[in-house]
Design a protein that fits this description.
138 residues; alpha+beta; single chain; two-stranded antiparallel sheet; globular; 5-stranded mixed beta sheet
Length: 138
C-alpha cells in the first residue's frame, strides 16, 4: 500500500518511480521534489520525467525540484539527512494567489533553506557513490 509517511510537518511519499536502462539512456531523469503546501507543511517525493521540468511551471504549483541520479531511491534516508533545512523551508513557505505583480510564483519561501536542501541532497548522493567506490576497491 502506497501510504504517505508523515514526519511532523513533512509528508514523505513512499512511491519510487522506476527507470529502466532504456529510459535512462533516452533522457529520462529523476527529480527530488518538495511541494510547499503552506501552513508549515510540505510533501517530499521523487518523480521520473522524460523532459526537464520548467521552473516557472513548477512554481505555479508550489513545487521545487532538483535533478538526482538515476540510482537515487533512498528518499527516507535523504530526507532524514536534510530534515532541518526541509523543515525550515516548509515553515517559511507562504502560498499566494498569482496576480499582476506575481504571475508565476504561487509561493514564497526561504531561498537559503532551499539552497541548503539542494546541497544536502547533493552531499547525500556523493556519500552513496563514495561508499560504493570504497566497497568495490576492496
Amino acid at each position: 500500500m502506497n501510504e504517505i509517511l508523515s514526519m511532523a510537518n513533512l509528508q514523505v511519499d513512499p512511491a519510487r518511480p522506476a527507470l529502466t536502462s532504456e529510459q535512462t539512456l533516452t533522457g529520462w531523469r529523476r527529480e527530488f521534489c518538495v511541494e510547499l503546501l503552506g501552513e508549515g507543511q510540505a510533501r517530499v517525493f521523487l518523480r521520473a520525467v522524460e523532459l526537464p521540468s520548467m521552473k516557472a511551471d513548477e512554481l505555479r504549483q508550489a513545487i521545487l525540484f532538483h535533478r538526482v541520479g538515476a540510482a537515487f531511491d533512498d528518499l527516507d534516508g535523504c530526507v532524514a539527512a536534510v530534515r532541518e533545512p526541509l523543515e525550515q523551508l516548509a515553515r517559511t513557505a507562504v502560498r499566494q494567489k498569482p496576480g499582476k505583480d506575481n504571475l508565476f510564483a504561487a509561493v514564497t519561501y526561504d531561498r537559503n533553506a532551499w539552497d541548503r536542501v539542494v546541497q544536502g541532497v547533493e552531499n547525500w548522493q556523493r556519500r552513496l557513490h563514495a561508499t560504493v567506490s570504497r566497497e568495490s576497491n576492496r
